[in-house]
Amino acid sequence: MKDICYLCGQTMIEKKGYLKKDLDKELPKFKHDEHIIQNALYGRLKAPNILCEKCGSKLSQSIDTDFVKIFDLFTSPISHILASKDHGENGGKTLTGYIKKSNGSKIEVQVKDGKIVPKKPDSDFNKETNTVKIYGAKKILDSFQKKVLQDLEKKGHDTKTISIELIDHISDWQELGINFSQGIENFNEKFKLGLNKIATGFASLHGIKRTDMPCTIDTENEQIIFTKNVLAFYPVGTLDKLMEPVRSVIEDGFPTHTLMLYTDRSFGNTRLVCFIDLFSTFQYYVILNHNYQGSKINKTYYQTIIKQEKPDINIRATRPKYLNILVEELGVDWEEIKGMELNEIYDFLEKKQKQYTVTYVLDTNTYVRKGSSLISRFILLKNNPQLEELSVGIEKEIIEAIPELEVDDLLCLQQELHRIETKSPEEFYKKEYITFNKDKNKMVLYSTLMRLFELNREKFNIMDYTFSKFFLLQQFVNSNSQK
User: Fold this and answer.
1) Gap between the Cα atoms of 25 and 130, Å rounded
2) Residues with Cβ < 8 Å from 258, sequence gap 6 or more?
3) Phi, psi of 210 (to 5 degrees)
4) What is the DSSP letter of 290?
5) In 59-83, which positions are buried (b, 16+ CB within 10 angstroms) versus exposed (e)?
6) pLDDT tens across 309-350, in order?
7) d(C-alpha 100, C-alpha 363), whole Å
8) Alpha carbons 71 and 75: distance in angstroms, whole number
9) Could you give the percent of the chain with pLDDT greater than 70?
10) Single pTM value for the model
11) How far apart are CA 1 and CA 4, in angstroms?
């Protein structure tokens, strides 16, 4: 089977070993390793046979360069804990943004090496609290303070009573993050084109033809396009409503990237859809085809972006009764060591440790099962005052944050938990949910995408959810940024 570039539609060949025989002949289309989620976003999934080298370079310049800049604000401060990239260094970028003064005007700032610093000296006087914040580099703060106070005295303020705060770097990542999209020219277009490129690449990886993706590819003009085919996710099922607000706590490897390619047959015809979740925060459905004629498909890719390290274990120093822990940690099947003498087991485990390689790929089924189990436990604790006294710290905060559930919600949750135990969550997670029908007399499966289309037509406001997800990521960045 020939490898076809999804953008130009030309057959690709291996570049290695190619010898140009005819100087007048046009160069063929060469294969190259294409990151499905951009390398700059710490995506690790690559495909060597979906996009030719020339088209890859073209899309890198027209889409990727602007798209990845959108996320610099989140990755730059925590680059020291993120996985290494295939090329390019982690961090080291100077970013620009702003924070707001008490009067609504802006202070321009730069982000460098995890610190937010003002681009130039500035001040923020709050008349109501009689305080002034003075921003500037350390070496000029004292002289600039004198100027600020002189200006305030000229305006009739008693500077002896004013509380003064000198700030050479700013710790309010949350405020800076909220404004991250402002100042980026054509933000929405760049953002959605980036999502469409990811979805197109993932679909191509799994054998979807370029002609079967009319919502994301203009095959005639050889371009990635946006056709109002991107829909923001909002939790409509009971389980999602409970899990998403606490994801930073219950998800191993947070923040993560997720891709789900599937067919949705709930619209009368079949839609080819890719669910994209970047940094466990930016969640969207990309429709590749509104009337897909191909076979049913359900493919998932799920990875962490946090640096993973090889376990540093002294095998020989481990007591025999704890070897079961090593077996699990090294991913050894018990059948492999069945019947071995103790010394043979130690030898085998040492060999396995040398062969061990870290992985960034996670299992969606494991996350959903673990997360739903924790949520069940938290609900039990919330509804039992005596048990709640046993919970402390972060668990207590989560329990207090869980909303009071209606009877219908609890019944739906019970069925969701049963489905998670008896089926593979990848079959339905983020695709469909259990709810009651309109007459409230029967539980039914309902398409998540269909419900989101309905909410979109009803002009439903999802901004509160968007900001809550944004806040979780910003909290993580703030607590893990370089000091």
Assistant:
1) 76
2) 275, 276, 277, 280, 300, 301, 302, 364
3) -60, -35
4) S
5) bbeebbebbbebbbbbbbbbbeebb
6) 887 788 888 888 888 888 877 878 888 998 999 999 989 988
7) 41
8) 6
9) 89
10) 0.82
11) 9
